[in-house]
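FAQ: What does a multi-protein file look like?

Like this. Sequence, then tokens, then the next protein.
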Amino acid sequence: MRIPMQELMLMLEGLVRGEFMLFGVDVLTIDDMDRYWLVSSPEWTEFHQEPKLSVGSLLEDWAGLQRVLEGGTPTAVDFERLGAVLRVVSDRILEPSTSETGGSKAGRIDIHSRQLLLLLAMLVEHFQQAGVSGLEIDDMDYYWVVQPPEWTDFHKEPSLCVGSLIDDWAELQRVLKEDIVTTVDFNRLGAVLRAISERLGRQ
């Protein structure tokens, strides 16, 4: 499966245009979550042993991405960080924050649709200038994932599900060809960005 970097931009533009506009949202406020379950790289795509769960931090992911917006040099890990943010966007478009207090200022994130587009554009442009116009993902398909709402629930041990990068990419092609989008497509693009992060990290 070949992933052209420029197609990532077109996909995210289609998702933002379709879902943010459909729900009349320009800014998503996240003030009631931080930690989330994940299987770390490279275990997230390995199936020869039982995977170990790790904990990620949305606040740390967002802080890392802010560094890019402020002119810091993008890294491969920033694709994974943006992928995690897209998963939250998918959840929150359908189910906005239930926090009544507005959360603490230190734990509040305001995600503007234009920031998502700008971040991905900056990442893509940086790696294109480094000579990466596309990536071959030919040794990864199935991956471990904790599905919503369990992925942010720390009251119990979450169960793992299996996703498919090939299926995700095929479904995302629909966004480009038919201009039909769903909130699940943010999750799919998040998984693809994670695969890109891992592939770039190996180079």
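And here is the next protein:
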Amino acid sequence: MTAVTEAPPGLSLVFGVGDLLCALPLREVVETIRPLPVQPLAGTADVLLGVSVIRGLAVPVVDTARLLGAAAERPSRFVTTRTGGGPLAYATGPVRGVLPVEPDADRPPPPMLAASATRIVAAVGVLDARPLLFLSSEWPLPSAPRDEWPLTSPSPSPRTSSSTSSSPSPSTEHDEWPVHDGT
């Protein structure tokens, strides 16, 4: 296992979200795990599936497909990231792996992206002749319902069961979590 703080620069975790390819800088990734039960929260934006107990912490889980306007799908992985406000989990499709890709600092996101999308999409690149969206884990979680937040899609998203997990949790802080695939 490799601690996130030891991740060399220039590496990104690449994963699918519907037909999209997305990447997060490896230094922001805590771990990838199979989806856990999620407890929905009333009154939150539809991009927030709810909270899940991950390593003993209540972690917000974002519906990445809805966030990016992709076709809704049942998540196959949670990608947990480190943010200034604490851990955040992205519900995603399959993880393709850790690849030596990073956004080009000299190429900002295309100006056609909506201003609200540039809060999440830090850059757009190409991988295997497909667009690659470089996401930023440092964006404000919306608190408004779907109809008040412009990034949400009107299509329904799959929800995970709301049962609680009773798995043991380590007493370490999330900054010390190792990167592993959760299998």
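Q: Is there any per-entry metadata?
A: Some entries carry free-text notes. For the entry above: The radius of gyration is 16 Å.
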